[in-house]
């Protein structure tokens, strides 16, 4: 009898008077957000409008220069290509993972996770070796007779796109797999029984139901690609600089925190705008309200 009373006393709920209520309950979370997010962004914003002189001169120079606009264009073009290619490859892989036997799916998942856990710098250097003019890819293409001379696959946006797509694939496969796995197979069977072809089941049933996962994965990949630094700096070149490299150059080489802050704030605004658009069109679906 005493044992039962002790167990019930241990599992008893916390008295309501001791629970944090009202504003005091969220003070720790707000403090954390303020210290690590709001304060740094505010400091960056201040430096972008105060250095080297007060005003919006940094933004005017950044958005009025053809050189800087080309860097913005490179960044958005590469990010868009990486997102599109990753989505095109990631959807079939996620669908295959959702329908294949559990043991085989576990092996594929282990490979995906292993690729994510491998050092990013090592993976990028590996792609440098594979993509160079004397690398394995060019040798294979020439050995098969598909090309007569090596293709320029490094120090350009082609190499950056290939390397970043490889790195970003797991980030789009995992959200898609989670969404596709929740789709009831009976829905596809019902569509087939009603006379829908395989193509119609794909385009009119599966794809619409997978849109939330596609949107979440595409947004994640696009935003991460906008701010990527290591892969573009190693596989790209000075003529194909991206925005993260420009920010690093402003801060490290030129010690121009004003321009660096302005470029970072522009990138932040673009990212937040994309997130708002994603919430506007897919927010209710992501929370289950289809």
UniProtKB/TrEMBL annotation:
Pfam families recorded: BPD_transp_1
GO CC entries: plasma membrane
Endpoints of the signal sequence: none
One of the GO biological process terms: transmembrane transport
Record-annotated ABC transmembrane type-1 domain positions: 72-278
Main location: membrane
Membrane-related topology note: Multi-pass membrane protein
SUPFAM superfamilies, per database record: MetI-like
Localization in the cell: Cell membrane
InterPro entries: MetI-like, MetI-like_sf
Keyword Transmembrane appears in the UniProt entry: yes
Transmembrane parts of this sequence: 26-50, 71-98, 104-122, 157-180, 205-230, 250-277
Keywords linked to the UniProt accession: Cell membrane, Membrane, Transmembrane, Transmembrane helix, Transport
Coiled coil: none
Family assignment from sequence similarity: Belongs to the binding-protein-dependent transport system permease family. CysTW subfamily.
Record's protein name: Putative spermidine/putrescine transport system permease protein
Organism ancestry: Bacteria, Pseudomonadati, Pseudomonadota, Alphaproteobacteria, Hyphomicrobiales
């Amino acid at each position: 009898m005493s044992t039962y009373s002790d167990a019930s006393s241990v599992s008893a709920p916390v008295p309501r008077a001791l629970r944090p209520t009202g504003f005091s309950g969220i003070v720790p979370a707000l403090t954390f957000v303020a210290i690590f997010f709001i304060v740094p962004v505010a400091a960056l914003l201040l430096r972008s409008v105060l250095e080297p002189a007060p005003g919006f001169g940094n933004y005017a120079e950044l958005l009025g220069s053809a050189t800087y606009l080309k860097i913005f264009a490179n960044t958005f073009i590469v990010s868009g290509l990486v997102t599109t290619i990753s989505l095109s490859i990631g959807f079939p892989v996620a669908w295959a993972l959702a329908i294949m036997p559990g043991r085989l799916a576990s092996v594929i998942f282990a490979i995906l996770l292993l690729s994510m856990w491998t050092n990013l710098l090592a993976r990028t250097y590996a792609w440098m070796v594979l993509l160079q003019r004397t690398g394995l890819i060019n040798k294979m293409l020439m050995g098969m007779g598909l090309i007569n001379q090596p293709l320029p696959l490094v120090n350009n946006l082609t190499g950056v796109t290939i390397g970043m797509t490889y790195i970003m694939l797991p980030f789009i496969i995992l959200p898609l797999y989670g969404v596709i796995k929740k789709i009831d197979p009976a829905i596809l069977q019902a569509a087939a029984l009603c006379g829908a072809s395989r193509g119609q089941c794909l385009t009119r049933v599966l794809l619409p139901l997978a849109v939330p996962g596609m949107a979440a994965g595409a947004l994640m990949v696009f935003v991460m690609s906008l701010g990527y630094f290591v892969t573009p700096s190693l596989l790209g070149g000075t003529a194909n600089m991206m925005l993260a490299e420009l920010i690093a150059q402003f801060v490290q080489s030129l010690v121009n925190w004003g321009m660096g802050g302005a470029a970072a704030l522009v990138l932040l605004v673009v990212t937040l705008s994309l997130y708002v658009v994603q919430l506007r069109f897919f927010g209710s679906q992501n929370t289950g309200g289809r």
